[in-house]
Amino acid sequence: DELDAVGKARAKNASQGGGHDEREQTLNALLTEMDGFDNSSGVIVMAATNRPETLDPALMRPGRFDRQISVETSDTPGREGILTVHAKKALLDPTVDLRNISRNTPGASGATLENVINEGALLAAREDADSITAEHLAEAIDRMSIGQKRSLFLSESQRTKIAYHESGHALATRLIGGRAVHKLTIRPYGSGALGFMAPEPEEDVLLHTKTELEDRIVSMLAGRAAEEVIYNIPSTGAGNDLEQATRIAKLMVKKLGMGENTGLMVTLPEEEGMFGLSGDETPEVKKEVNAILDKAMERAKTLLTEKKGALEAMKEALLERETLLKEDIEAIVAPYLDTPD
């Protein structure tokens, strides 16, 4: 495992730190030993790495590691099977639906799924519960994705601003993106989150249309938009939202040929900066990215202005209960699905 620890590409010359260090000597010894195998030895050498692009080319030559198997994260049935294996050693409540848990963990690795069961067991033990319930596992998933709940004193004005912000995310996700919202809360989580909105997970979608990506950006910017609609001034609470929205907009322009004026030409890997998509952009790319973000922001503000009644209703419900689940959110949104406020 972790072949890149000893198989990282060797430096071309001594001035780059190569030639005689211990790691390169280990790699040279490994290459020499692998050259010693013949067809009658009956030995298959296997290795694993998460960073194949950093490996020395000599490792991939015929007779060495010349077959590559890409192991992707599991789909929904696969995740259910992994959860079933790990759940055998835990006392689950009979009402727990592992298929539902697998739907709520798209992209999760086997280790993450095992940790969900373990974390659920710890939560049940702390409550001195007889078994692990679906609520314990749901809380475990939240901890895996955004961290633990925090005890943090917030003034009523701050709680109100956070409630408007998260309500904006939820309404845009539901009314523009068409996705149900699984959970909405203004309880602080993790190292910096003062609340969060969790949309209903998608069914292992591998392809997204331009419209879907634009709708997702609207949802990300809707928290900031809600602040501007209500207070006419933004706050620092949208920092992470802006980062995610900008990343998707850059991806659309630089990698997917979805810009209006930049054409189909994309940034090739060898043209990227040290940090990939965050490398230097041309003025045309910057203008196109800003146009995507500005358009999404206007859509979010228009929606929340038209549905201000829904925004106020969801804000009040959040201030009263702190956490809203899917059925609560659907009940609030239902009157506003078809007609403007």
Please tell me about this protein's structure.
The structure is a single chain. The chain is mainly alpha-helical. Helix content is 50%, strand content 4%. The protein is built from twelve helices and three strands; from the N terminus they run αααααααββααααβα. It has helices spanning 4-7, 22-35, 76-87, 98-103, 110-126, 134-146, 156-175, 210-231, 239-254, 283-306, 308-321, 326-333, and strands spanning 181-185, 196-199, 323-325. It has a three-stranded antiparallel sheet with strand order 2-1-3. It is globular, with a radius of gyration of 25 Å. Mean pLDDT is 84; it is low at 274-278.
Which features would summarize this protein structure in a list?
341 residues, mainly alpha, 3 strands, globular
Spatial strand sequence of the major β-sheet: 2-1-3
- Helix and strand content put the structural class at mainly alpha
Over the alpha carbons, how many angstroms does the gyration radius reach?
25 Å
What characterizes the major β-sheet? 3 strands, antiparallel
Please report the distance between the alpha carbons of the first and last residues.
Answer: 58 Å
- Whole-number mean pLDDT: 84
